[in-house]
Amino acid sequence: MVPNVITFTLARKEKIIFYLITFLSGVIGFGGVFLAGKLAFGGGRFIVLTVGVFSLIVMFFCLYSFFRLRKEEGVGIYISDEGIYDISTGNTYGTVVWSDVEEIRIMDDISDLKHQYIVVRVKNPTAYIQREQNKAKQHSLELKLQFYGTPICFSNRTLNCTFEQLKDAVFLKYNQYKEQNEAPANE
What we know:
alpha+beta, 2 domains, three-stranded antiparallel sheet, 5 helices
């Protein structure tokens, strides 16, 4: 019996790096703002304040992400009978439903040939891009669309699994979906 939902958690190393970035950006942020208050006007005050404020913004973004991950209990990706829901990449385009999927293929990562992506070509790529509310992330998804032919790409880089395990789970659920939806047409 195959479970209805296959999940993969975030890798321990990624969680530790994430916590460390949150902590350090908070220390640098609060330290920078405090130090800027002690500096004389013009003595590097603006630069120190800018670095401090930027670090605090990073810290608050990390805290938001931390609470989002805690809500998901550390799960980075869900693969179900409905589709794939990925939060490990930081994109928020929601569930990629199997009925939208036209093709799934494996591609090498051009920036690091030791890694691969599961590339999911969908019928309506711009709809998935528009679901992302952050404009910078939308631009990133548009670049993926231009290069890969789809904005939807998954890898195991931040997940606690091998690429083969992730690939097998995706193809298992996708093939099950196709079998269930092709069976009535053949009868």
